[in-house]
Specification:
- α4 links the parallel β3 and β4.
- With 250 residues, the protein is an alpha/beta fold.
- It has 8 helices and 6 strands.
- The protein has a 6-stranded parallel β-sheet with strand order 3-4-2-1-5-6, sandwiched between helices.
- It has a single domain, classed as Undecaprenyl pyrophosphate synthetase.
- Bound molecules: farnesyl diphosphate.
- The site of farnesyl diphosphate has 21 residues, from α1, α2, β2 and α3.
- The site of farnesyl diphosphate (FPP) has 21 residues, from α1, α2, β2 and α3.
């Protein structure tokens, strides 16, 4: 396989992991088996991202809408999350990976919440890569919460509404500590954003693949980055105005 340009690896990759159910159905298996295989794909893709030098990886592990799924499936997804975190802690520490999460984790069952908070605590000093799990996350409610917080500040007289700009708004989002995604990947042939990082993907390159999430691996990630590297990111400018060094600071 052709080499990747090491100087143009997307700093932040976000992934909508879709197709676990279809992967299982194709094999006449229960959907939960698809999620189990999806968890294996998560393990591989996290390590592959670390090896490729990606600095931030955000995975859409559970949306606010996913609570509406059958109870057993929700329970299975939560239990897989706990299992994943328990089994990967050592590897995260060995590979200098810091875990963070965005979303309303108050809804996460007690045991899984505990292991999540424990993993966040134990990896908080790591600097090699940030693994950000979107859990019980929804983009619109994140934007609404930021809007409410800003409105409260204006009401209290701490802020003028004219001072609200994109930077200030971003700083009120759950992702305030991390840069916006450069590349958004969605698996399984669906071409929607599904309430994921609505504000943050404003300038992201979008990559859709028919591959179902359990089949997504290092090679597939490599292909997505290759495609990313073949695109010209213009941020609203003309092609002539954009030089690679300029893109770095945007
Ligand atoms: C979409 O497949 C996937 C999810 C709803 C959740 C993603 C969960 C995992 C990859 C497993 C565990 C995660 C971690 C972080 C350990 P789908 O069920 O919507 O598939 P379908 O559209 O084919 O039905």
């Amino acid at each position: 396989m052709e080499e990747l340009d090491k100087d143009n690896i997307p700093r932040h990759v976000a992934i909508i992991m879709d197709g676990n159910g279809r992967w299982a159905r194709k094999r006449l298996m229960n959907r939960i088996n698809g999620h189990r295989r999806g968890m294996e794909a998560v393990k591989n893709v996290v390590m592959a991202s670390r090896e490729l030098g990606i600095k931030y990886l955000t995975l859409y592990a559970f949306s606010t809408e996913n609570w509406r799924r059958p109870k057993e499936e929700v329970r299975a997804l939560m239990s897989l999350l706990g299992k994943y975190l328990r089994s990967e802690l050592t590897l995260m520490i060995e590979n200098n990976i810091k875990l963070i999460s965005i979303g309303n984790i108050d809804n996460i069952p007690k045991d899984e919440k505990e292991v999540l908070l424990n993993t966040i605590e134990k990896t908080k000093e790591n600097k090699g890569m940030v693994l950000n799990l979107a859990l019980s996350y929804g983009g619109r409610s994140e934007i609404l919460d930021a809007t409410r917080a800003l409105a409260d500040e204006v009401k209290k007289g701490e802020l003028e509404s004219s001072e609200i700009d994109a930077e200030l708004f971003s700083s009120h989002l759950l992702t305030s500590e991390i840069p916006d995604p450069d590349l958004l990947i969605r698996t399984s042939g669906e071409m929607r954003i599904s309430n994921f990082l609505l504000w943050q993907v404003a300038y992201a390159e979008l990559y859709f693949t028919d591959t179902l999430w359990p089949d997504f691996n290092k090679e597939e990630l490599f292909k997505a980055i290759k495609e990313y590297q073949s695109r010209e990111r213009r941020f609203g400018k003309t092609g002539d105005q954009v030089s690679p060094s300029e893109v770095d600071v945007l």
